[in-house]
Write a structure and sequence with these properties.
It is a single chain. This protein has 232 residues and is mainly alpha-helical. It has eleven helices and no strands. The chain is globular. The protein starts with a helix and ends with a helix.
């Protein structure tokens, strides 16, 4: 858990610096920076998605995961969580997005990569926190930029990182044998596609892609690959 706690702390520090910078950035510049971030997020997503070695796994995972997520209406539940936080914290997101948007965007960017999974397992089993510390530094820098344009909602992503990576670290002894390199790779590829969707939403400043409803897709390779393996 130490590596995860350091990761969370670096995100919160970045968010604090981002809020300070936000006050000095005119709205016109915030809009331009948001579009630039959107393009950058699309690039991050594409670079992750193209690493798949099983395109059918990604397609099936996206289809089944999106169906489940839509049935559970995850997007709406995330919006309700953001609305609750906004009522408690007040609106600091400005014109460029709600607290929900900052929370969902940052949470996905910080949680879906291979570093989050592998780093948490290494931290939990071997006590080696180097990967998560390196990831925390990257997350902290991006948190400065995200928070300066999307507001305090980004800070809530620290909770998502704590729960997600913390759970993997605590359960690493049981999780590690179940996660093959192929599974981690395909989960990262699916996550890359979701990040592309986030980037498109940032570019157009509207929720064209219901990324929240697609979240279960990240975990579908855990089911798809073993089933396919039975018939290989």
């Amino acid at each position: 858990m130490i590596g995860t706690l350091i990761n969370v702390a670096l995100i919160l520090i970045g968010c604090g610096l981002g809020l300070v910078l936000r006050k000095g950035i005119p709205e016109r510049l915030q809009s331009t920076v948001m579009r630039a971030l959107g393009l950058s997020v699309v690039l991050i997503g594409i670079s992750g998605a193209i690493k798949t070695s099983d395109t059918m796994c990604v397609i099936v995972s996206m289809a089944v995961g999106s169906f489940l997520g839509s049935a559970l209406n995850i997007e709406r539940r995330l919006e309700q969580l953001g609305d609750f936080a906004e009522r408690k914290l007040g609106s600091h997101a400005g014109g460029q997005g709600s607290i929900s948007k900052g929370f969902v965007t940052a949470s996905l960017v910080y949680c879906v990569g291979a570093m989050a999974i592998v780093g948490a397992i290494d931290s939990g089993i071997n006590g080696n926190h180097a990967t998560l510390i390196a990831k925390g530094m990257l997350d902290g820098v991006s948190a400065i930029i995200f928070t300066s344009t999307m507001g305090i909602g980004v800070a809530l992503s620290a909770v998502a990182v704590l729960v997600y990576q913390g759970a993997i670290a605590l359960l690493a002894t049981w999780v590690a044998p179940l996660l093959t390199e192929a599974m981690i790779g395909e989960m990262s590829a699916v996550g890359g596609l979701l990040i592309v969707g986030i980037g498109l939403n940032m570019l157009y400043d509207k929720e064209h892609v219901p990324v929240g409803n697609m979240l279960p897709a990240i975990f579908m390779p855990l089911i798809y690959l073993p089933i396919v393996g039975l018939f290989a």
